[in-house]
TrEMBL record:
Name of the gene: tsf
Keywords: Cytoplasm, Elongation factor, Protein biosynthesis
Species this chain originates from: Pedobacter suwonensis
Annotated protein name in UniProt: Elongation factor Ts
Entries under SUPFAM superfamilies matching the protein: Elongation factor Ts (EF-Ts), dimerisation domain, UBA-like
Signal peptide segment: none
Protein task: Associates with the EF-Tu.GDP complex and induces the exchange of GDP to GTP. It remains bound to the aminoacyl-tRNA.EF-Tu.GTP complex up to the GTP hydrolysis stage on the ribosome.
Length: 281
């Protein structure tokens, strides 16, 4: 046990420096014999333990941040997740979300792993900074999703609660201003959650599952076996209409699908890719 006298002022100073709790700061100073740097290291190590202890906890809250390049050809999305809504509103958490996004913009990482390894201005990596804030706040914090998308024209959308974000890649604008139309399509994706841009983008396993479900339902309805394949094909087409972006009914005008809306906006305009992220989904 340390014989060094730890004053309330010392504890408060360390608390101000690290944001850790009063008792945690006092224990760290006692263990470090009053050495502030060593106490900070002890608190950071505690943060690592907290991070490990909470690694299985669900992260359904957080903040989605998006940055689109000035020329509109690249978009980056970072979904920083935590366990509870109050933490998602804490200034330190929001500052961290912005710092991670800024690191992504400055370094152009391709993957979450590359993003986590980036060194920030204070010399710590993104991963180390997240671990430290985990220890300070006492909740699991993770980069739940990261997207780095390039194309002819990127349009973004963030829902008002900050928990959902969309990046859309448009091709074929041919110089037309598609800002408003792009926002409409991004909001369509947010609301309707398509599984792919078009039919050919649907995972074969999903198609097989939809067909098998349709066949099972048709047989339970007592339809003749010779009609099962034909009816199932019709149900699959209905699935494409409901679940693939270009074939979906346009939310703002049900008289046309999204493909037609885009073509009306600029001849040949289409969507080549999109990324939709929703925390807590």
């Amino acid at each position: 046990m340390s014989t060094v006298q730890i004053t309330a002022a010392d504890v408060n100073k360390l608390r101000q420096q690290t944001g850790a709790g009063m008792m945690d700061c006092k224990k760290a100073l006692l263990e470090a014999n009053g050495d502030f740097e060593a106490a900070v290291d002890l608190l950071r190590k505690k943060g690592q333990k907290v991070s490990a202890a909470r690694s299985g906890n669900a992260t359904s809250e957080g903040l989605v941040s998006i940055a689109v390049s000035e020329d509109g050809t690249n978009g980056k999305l970072v979904a920083l997740a935590c366990e509870t809504e109050p933490v998602s509103k804490v200034e330190d958490f929001r500052n961290l979300a912005q710092a991670v996004l800024a690191a992504a913009v400055a370094n152009n990482p391709a993957t979450t792993e590359e993003l986590s390894a980036i060194t920030l201005e204070d010399g710590r990596t993104v991963a180390e900074t997240i671990t430290e804030l985990t220890g300070k706040i006492g909740e699991k914090i993770v980069i739940q999703e990261y997207a780095n998308i390039s194309g002819e024209k990127i349009v973004s959308y963030i829902h008002s609660n900050g928990k959902m974000g969309v990046l859309v890649v448009f091709e074929g604008a041919n110089g037309a201003d598609i800002t408003e139309a792009g926002k409409d399509v991004a909001m369509q994706i947010a609301a309707m959650n398509p599984v792919a841009v078009d039919k050919d983008g649907v995972d074969p396993a999903t198609i097989e599952r939809e067909i098998e479900i349709a066949k099972d339902v048709i047989r339970q309805e007592g339809k003749p076996e010779e009609m099962v394949e034909k009816i199932a094909a019709g149900k699959l087409n209905k699935f494409y209409k409901d679940s693939t972006l270009l074939n979906q009914e346009f939310v703002k005008d049900s008289s046309m699908d999204v493909r037609k809306f885009l073509d009306n906006t600029a001849k040949g305009l289409t969507v080549s890719a999109f990324k939709r992220v929703q925390l807590g989904a």
